[in-house]
Design brief:
Bound molecules: NADP nicotinamide-adenine-dinucleotide phosphate
Oligomer: single chain
Order of helices and strands: EHEHEHEHEHHEHEE
Structural class: alpha/beta
Number of strands: 8
Number of helices: 7
CATH topology: Rossmann fold
Distance between the termini: 38 Å
Strand content: 5-15%
Shape: globular
CATH superfamily: NAD(P)-binding Rossmann-like Domain
CATH class: Alpha Beta
Length: about 240
Amino acid sequence: MRTATTALVTGANKGIGLQAVRQLAELGLTVLLGSRDPDRGARAAAELAARGVRAEPVTLDVTDAGSVRAAAEHIDDRHGVLDVLVNNAGIFLGPLSLDTTAEDLRPLYETNVFGVVTVTRAMLPLLRRSRAPRVVNVSSTTASVELTRRPEPIPGDPTRRLAYASSKAALNMLTAQYAEAFERDPELARIKVNAVAPGFTATDLNGFTGTRTAAEGARVITRLATLPDDGPSGGFFDDRGPLPW
Ligand SMILES: NC(=O)c1ccc[n+]([C@@H]2O[C@H](COP(=O)([O-])OP(=O)(O)OC[C@H]3O[C@@H](n4cnc5c(N)ncnc54)[C@H](OP(=O)(O)O)[C@@H]3O)[C@@H](O)[C@H]2O)c1
């Protein structure tokens, strides 16, 4: 029986994605390090290799269907299967909420929402070949309608969240909808798909103002990426447990 497990992390040349690659590789998975820029991907893989961690760079821009297709073909040729997909690539653009235009939303939705659909659909034939497929969508606490309306503030700047938080809320609904759709299809019912919130993490995304390290932020990704067969699907988690939608 096949024991090796192959994982793809999108947007993994830095930040939380890079740490997720490291953690999954340290658990013994064969990890594909997705990067839209091949040089940045190769550099990140070389940095990991210098620390004794093996990862295979793959060029993948989630907003470019051709690039996503090519990455799926590459994974098919080299591995023939994908066990874990981490939809981590994401961007933050934060004009003041009251100044945010529909045009401001477009690039965020292209990456944070539409990109996830493009990548998930392209990887489904490979996930279908896995005995225990797992999909992790990297969302945000700011996606939670309930937490947004509580008096206690969500860390970060609440005045510039309209675009980002709404894109991650859409990602949460994609997660719930995929969970439903997978469960209805006997061939896909093995796939567990969950959304995770890494917490306010110091990365380029927020000018390194976050209070957690990228390794801490990646922990919840790694946990949901390696769920046992009796683990949850269609949920939203941080590293303390389930989060309200
Ligand atoms: N940092 C936080 O506090 C925080 C909190 C909650 C959720 N998150 C989420 O965590 C995920 C990782 O963010 P991060 O904080 O690690 O930020 P980051 O350091 O800026 O990393 C973002 C990664 O996404 C990549 N990316 C952007 N657009 C892409 C595209 N079109 N195709 C492929 N890759 C693309 C970036 O590549 P380039 O280097 O080429 O730009 C980079 O590798 C994101 O989904 C983010 O929304 C972060």
